[in-house]
Amino acid sequence: AGLMPVFKGSAIRRALTIFTNHLTHGRCFELPLSPEIISVERLFTIGQSSDTSSLGILDTALLYAANHREALFILVLEGLDRAPSQYFVDALLDWYIQGLLDIPGDTFLSQRLKRLRRQDGLADDVINWPSNLLLAATMNGLPDGFPVSSTAMTKIIEVVVEPQGKHLDIHPAILDHNA
Q: Using an 8 Å Cβ cutoff, are 3 and 54 in contact?
């Protein structure tokens, strides 16, 4: 739908499990964020071994989604409020929503995709974010939101999840709206 759901509340883990099971049958990649993530480039290093030629979680999610177009996947930015998101969320959301059709060839993202094509078998026609890879995020603590631009806020939908007895207070229409 062109939006990134951001889950917050006391039942995030439970809601995320329901969300991923409902939409992707559990095909989920979790990208744990930290204060060191100060650019899109740093997102690619998460989960990467000390060998810089190895794939991180973001690379792996992109490759799986691009190579299995018949399946739906989700990439979860875990702890969006722990990282200085103003440095990377706009670029990531632009890539997610609009693609990289006009991206200059000398940018980091362009170079990274070329590497994935050349070394890891990503199809030549994959320039954009794979349409079968959904993007979501969680927030763990900031009650008043998180630092992103006003442009990014138009691309984010906050989903507050709190337990209501044995059930979560999350309407199924929200799940389908984000699919």
A: no
Alpha helices in the chain (DSSP H): 12-24, 40-43, 57-67, 89-98, 108-120, 150-153, 172-178
User: Which range is most confident: 82-86, 120-124, 150-154?
Assistant: 82-86
What pLDDT is recorded for position 59? 82
pLDDT band (50, 70, 90) for residue 73: very high
Residues composing the chain: 179
Number of alpha carbons in the 13 Å side-chain half-sphere of residue 23: 24
Report CA-CA distances (Å) from 3 to 9, 35, 96, 159, 179.
Answer: 19, 24, 9, 12, 9
Q: What is the largest CA-CA distance in the chain?
A: 53
Residue with tokens 């320039």: 127
Backbone angles phi, psi at 176, to 5 degrees: -70, -35
pTM of the model: 0.79
Position 102: which residue type?
Answer: D
Whether the predicted pLDDT of 74 surpasses 90: yes
In 3-state terms, what secondary structure has residue 138? Answer: strand
pLDDT tens for 10-21 read 888 888 888 888
